[in-house]
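Bumping my old thread because nobody answered last time. Still need a sequence for this structure:
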């Protein structure tokens, strides 16, 4: 004890006090992090996580094969019938997402969580939708992060809105508008089913004619427009944005882009337009098509380990060879979808 007192008044006093300060500081940070984690976990409405068991009433994506998936709402008394057999929903309840379940015939499907990517592939097309290539690009270019406030018009089928909700979670919010009352109501139901209902507010409003509600003036980090005449909403969108906020307009025709860019020049800067084209490839093992050359040797055959000459002098190819990997573009590659025009609100001088 005496030694500790002497040490505290010696050259090690500063070191000892710094050591205890660091201990208390990191202890406070750890307690704060734990409390924040408890808060997020206890708030089921804000938690976009599917690491849980499937319950009665949940929406699941039933994966049959790569290009065959469907959204199914779980009901304990219901069954799913397809070419693989009959699947009882009651067998799904309690299983974690990603589980493989068997039918009465021994066939199987996978039960996947309704992530924004999968939801885009299975949702009902009430309107033309944006796909993953455009969605990922615009979320990055609009600088959308957790906590952002985003305004969108129009909602349509809700493909983009679901991804926006995940991007702003857990503390941000998406306010989306569609002029069609029934379409807005259907989208609202879909957002509840996919677990993003608390992060999205759906309104029925004609943004082209009325503009965005004044209550969001100066509050939005980003604005997205998917309208037939987006130039009519540019002035209202500029009023909604924070200083240096970002705007994106999606249009399928270049003539729409031209008029939109003209409207943007007055209050926006850094105006850029992109077209995102995605090319997918099929990669698999297989035999290459062979054709006979002038000397009877196959052209385009897989490489062989060695070649031997027979007594007659003709070439005999060794039958042992490694598998051939073939790669080619998918025949159903998606072409033009639309143009994305980005701009940034001018700062006040």
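Sorry it took so long. Here it is:
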């Amino acid at each position: 004890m005496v030694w500790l007192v002497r040490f505290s008044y010696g050259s090690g006093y500063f070191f000892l006090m710094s050591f205890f300060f660091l201990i208390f500081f990191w202890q406070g940070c750890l307690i704060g992090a734990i409390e924040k984690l408890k808060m997020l976990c206890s708030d089921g409405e804000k938690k976009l996580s599917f690491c849980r068991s499937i319950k009665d009433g949940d929406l699941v994506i039933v994966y049959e094969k790569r290009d065959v998936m469907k959204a199914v709402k779980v009901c304990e008394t219901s069954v799913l019938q397809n070419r693989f057999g009959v699947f009882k929903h009651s067998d799904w309840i309690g299983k974690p997402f990603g589980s493989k379940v068997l039918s009465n015939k021994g066939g199987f499907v996978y039960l996947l969580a309704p992530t924004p990517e999968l939801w885009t592939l299975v949702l009902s097309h009430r309107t033309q939708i944006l796909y993953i290539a455009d969605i990922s690009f615009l979320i990055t270019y609009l600088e959308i992060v957790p906590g952002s406030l985003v305004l969108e018009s129009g909602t349509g089928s809700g493909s983009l809105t679901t991804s926006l909700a995940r991007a702003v979670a857990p503390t941000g919010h998406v306010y989306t508008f569609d002029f069609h009352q029934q379409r807005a109501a259907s989208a609202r139901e879909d957002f509840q089913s996919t677990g993003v209902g608390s992060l999205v507010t759906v309104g029925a409003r004609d943004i082209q004619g009325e503009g965005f509600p004044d209550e969001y003036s100066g509050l939005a980090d980003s604005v997205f427009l998917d309208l037939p005449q987006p130039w009519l909403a540019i002035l209202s969108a500029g009023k909604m944005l924070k200083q240096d906020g970002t705007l994106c307009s999606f249009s399928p025709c270049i003539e729409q882009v031209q008029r939109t860019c003209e409207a943007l020049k007055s209050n926006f800067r850094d105006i850029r337009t992109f077209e995102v084209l995605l090319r997918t490839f099929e990669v698999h093992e297989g035999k290459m098509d062979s054709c006979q050359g002038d000397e009877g040797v196959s052209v385009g055959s897989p490489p062989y380990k060695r070649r031997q000459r027979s007594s007659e002098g003709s070439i005999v190819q060794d039958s042992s060879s490694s598998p051939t990997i073939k790669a080619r573009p998918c025949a159903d590659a998606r072409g033009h979808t639309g143009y994305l025009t980005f701009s940034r609100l001018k700062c006040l001088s």
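The chain has nine helices and 19 strands. Let me know if any region looks off to you.
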